[in-house]
Amino acid sequence: MLSDVGRLADHQTRLTSARSARPFWLATPAVFQPASEILIFLYIQRAVEMAIRAGEPARAAQWEANEALRATVVGEPRALELAQRVLQLNPGHDATYVAALAFANLGDARRARELSQQLNRQFPLDTLVQESELLTIQAVIDFRQGFPTRAIETLKRASQYELRYADHFALQPVYVRGEAYLKAAQGQQAAAEFQKMLAHHGIVGNSITGALAHLQLGRAQAMMGDKTAARKSYQDFLAIWKDADPDIPIYRQAKAEYALLR
After folding, report:
1. Quick check: pTM over 0.70?
2. Contact 176/211 with Cβ under 8 angstroms?
3. Would you state the pLDDT for residue 40?
4. Environment class of residue 45 by beta-carbon count within 10 Å: exposed (0-12), middle (13-18) or buried (19+)?
């Protein structure tokens, strides 16, 4: 196995090749099928640097926020540092929303609420902000604080809007609701939420939660006692992430859980 230094050097070489082959401003990191955490990180930082040099701090903040939330979802230790950087970049609406989700997932309810209140002040008449985004932030706070039933209740209002738009973290209300059902030991309801995500791959796009929906579905199926279906869902996830770095926390956990089902 390559050392961290060796891996970084290898990925920097690959990043240099990627820059010469394609205008980087148009590139989108392959978060759905992560070949390497380090390579994704290098792509993101390159995008942030270019946006700052181009005088577009809001765009830079969006890149940073997307990476921060992705890192929280997979359990990367640098997630908090990335989320903090967003606040230094004059974030716009999208970056503020995603950063709030990142802080909420990290258990920093204070900063998540501050950003939520900021969105509420800036967009009092925006339907998606008021009826989806603010509710999702609060639901993540509730869920991470150990109140999954409260999170499920909070997200009821968001259901009529959750399929209305797509971005890097589309269907967040669905994913969070599924997590809350899992935490509440309601496997059947959790499975329905993750199946909804898999049925709307055109909305989910290359969002990392699209791949993780397979894993979460497997967990729900295992909770329901359907080991055959659970094994298939785990296999689907592991196939999508077959080239992922082996030390990604959620990937290691998924492999360990799958081993217990075999």
Report:
1. yes
2. no
3. 67
4. middle
Q: Which domains does the chain have, with CATH numbers?
A: 35-122 (no CATH), 127-262 (1.25.40.10)
Contacts for 156 with CB less than 8 Å, ≥ 6 apart = none
Q: What is the pLDDT of residues 207-232, one digit of tens each?
A: 889 999 999 999 999 999 999 999 99
Q: How far apart are CA 107 and CA 64, in angstroms?
A: 19
Of residues 38 and 94, the one with the higher pLDDT is 94
Structure tokens at 3: 């050392």
Is the Cβ–Cβ distance between 86 and 80 less than 8 Å?
Answer: no
CA atoms of 215 and 194, how far apart (whole Å): 9
What does the block give as tokens for 202? Answer: 């055109």
Q: Which two tokens stand for residue 32?
A: 């759905």
Ranked by mean pLDDT, the top range of 40-49, 146-155, 156-165 is 146-155
19-49 tens-digit pLDDT: 433 333 333 333 444 545 566 667 777 877 8
Write the DSSP string, 79-129.
HHHHHHHHTTS---HHHHHHHHHHHHHTT-HHHHHHHHHHHHHH-TT-HHI
- Round to whole Å and give the CA distance between 232 and 73: 22
Beta-strand ranges (E) seen in the chain are none
